[in-house]
Amino acid sequence: xxxxxxxxxxxxxxxxxxxxxxxxxxxxxxxxxxxxxxxxxxxxxxxxxxxxxxxxxxxxxxxxxxxxxxxxxxxxxxxxxxxxxxxxxxxxxxxxxxxxxxxxxxxxxxxxxxxxxxxxxxxxxxxxxxxxxxxxxxxxxxxxxxxxxxxxxxxxxxxxxxxxxxxxxxxxxxxxxxxxxxxxxxxxxxxxxxxxxxxxxxxxxxxxxxxxxxxxxxxxxxxxxxxxxxxxxxxxxxxxxxxxxxxxxxxxxxxxxxxxxxxxxxxxxxxxxxxxxxxxxxxxxxxxxxxxx
Length: 293
Hints:
It is a single chain. By secondary structure, the chain is an alpha/beta fold. The chain has helices at about 15-20, 40, 50-55, 70-75, 100-110, 125-130, 140-155, 165-195, 200-205, 215-225, 235-250, 255-275, 280-290, and strands at about 5, 25-30, 45-50, 60-65, 90-95, 115-120, 120, 135, 155-160. The chain contains 13 helices and nine strands. The longest helix is centred in the middle third of the chain and has 29 residues, at about 165-195. The radius of gyration is 20 Å and the shape is elongated.
């Protein structure tokens, strides 16, 4: 499969598509805001004004969009791909959606004789650029194996969780841990500072303890300087936590930490922090409890 279409060139999609382009794939690109895909054109990709045009010659179609509604439009909208999708074409959805949404899309794709692969990723912008994402795959074994050459370029590891929907379930699980862990760091910093401790020393303590993680190391400078350039936007973790808590309710699970994190990130998003990194949850907590109190 040398001819591929890539739909969605946001913070993650752009470097991922670029990595496939660098490895010699013929990449046809659609993005709703075409200017954001221009770096790919400069690197040799072909840009199209509609998704249906982008997939015309594609043997594999990658979708990397932020939410279900955008995927619905790409599949079934006025210029949607379902009407022109050829039998045997792979549709590899790397977006973060719910397991039930993944199964719904798989049914639509399969009805056209095409093959749906559920393949969200764990990792943010830097791993996307470096090709070191973790691919969380759901689908038939033979179909995952057929996509493995792509996944080996995009990521450092592929974990096959089973049937379609399981990859999306895995993504919600890891993002729950990501959201809770980041908020836990922020809350721990807050009580330490309000107790009179120095922020840098507290972060040093965290880094030398059993709770030291790559997440902590990666966000340390953001916490120190109160600057939050987005590696993973807060609005996206908020969206994912909303999906997670909805899924928990469907499964009759009570997840107190998930519910609390969902509420906190949603409020931070509503307070204008959505385009900052998720570590800006620290900024949200500081603003709730100014030092003058």
